[in-house]
Amino acid sequence: MENRTIQSKNQGLKVLRPEDDFRFSCHSGLDCFTQCCRNINIFLTPYDILRLKNELEIASYEFLQKYTFTLVDHNGLPVVALKMEDDEKKSCPFVGSQGCKVYPNRPWSCRIYPLQPEQTKMTEKAGKQYYSIMDVPFCLGFQEKNSFAVKEWIQEQDIPIYIEMEKLFKKITMNEFLSDKKIKNKKIQEMFFMACYDLDRFRRFVFESSFLKQFDIDKDEIKKMKHDDVALYKFAMKWIEFGLIGQQELKLKPEVIVTKKDELGIK
Ligand code: SF4
Ligand code: SF4
């Protein structure tokens, strides 16, 4: 590690600023090649799933069923993890002798390695990003000569789009409204799962139910959501914000508000 790194006072970690350098190179000539793709926990973000299911050219529900399992976090919200193979080494389903078979669309945690974000609420609020180097003793990539500045690595690994998409998701999961709540309602958990992770099913829900009759949505946005997964993902995040934490990211149509008020006896 070069001397431009700074030491965290709290944990003795090397905390790297965007301009700091680190030494690393990963290639098939190393004895450890693909060792890191076995027996690991990889939690998938909604955007990871969007990219992976498109890489594999399968629907989101097929991807979820074949390659993942679901857990529930401390807020009662579902989280999705990659299912390792049932072989001796518990290999990632996407690892092959030549490396990662989904490389252009590999998950966020694989592409950012060996960096890991060192985030606090303060750094997040200030829009600053710091990283540290993961401690993986068997990884020989740290002994290679190549060095990168953190900011260079982030760009090269195509991380900014992942950060941008994850921000929308974190706006929900990190919202203070949820901090002391535990969602137990199965219907809410299912809706959250569908909108975040099962995008193709969410598209059917939007376009094949009375959904669009209820909300005031821009015609161009509707048109885009029909075929564009990123547009649909952005809309899904707005819908969850609206439904789960009461943010006015979406507007109900005036006639729907009148009907709802009538139902509730509100004048
Ligand atoms: S262990 Fe490190 S160097 Fe080896 S393949 Fe994995 S990331 Fe690359
Ligand atoms: S997705 Fe690719 S890089 Fe990530 S663990 Fe699996 S094979 Fe390795």
Description:
This protein has 267 residues and is an alpha+beta fold. The chain folds into two domains: 155 residues, no CATH class; 95 residues, no CATH class. It is 42% helix and 12% strand. The radius of gyration is 21 Å and the shape is globular. The termini are far apart. Bound molecules: iron/sulfur cluster (2 copies). One iron/sulfur cluster binds next to loops.
Main structural class: alpha+beta
Overall 3D form: globular
Strands in their spatial order, largest beta sheet: 4-6-5
| Beta-strand residue fraction | 5-15%
Beta strands, count = 11
**Rg to the nearest angstrom?**
21 Å
Unique ligands: iron/sulfur cluster
How many alpha or pi helices? 12
* Secondary-structure element series: EEEEHHEEEEHEHEEHHHHHHHH
Work out the helicity level. 40-55%
Oligomer category: single chain
How many structural domains? 2
Distance between the first and last residues' Cα: 67 Å
Mean pLDDT: 89
- Which regions have little confidence, pLDDT < 50, spanning 5+ residues? 1-12
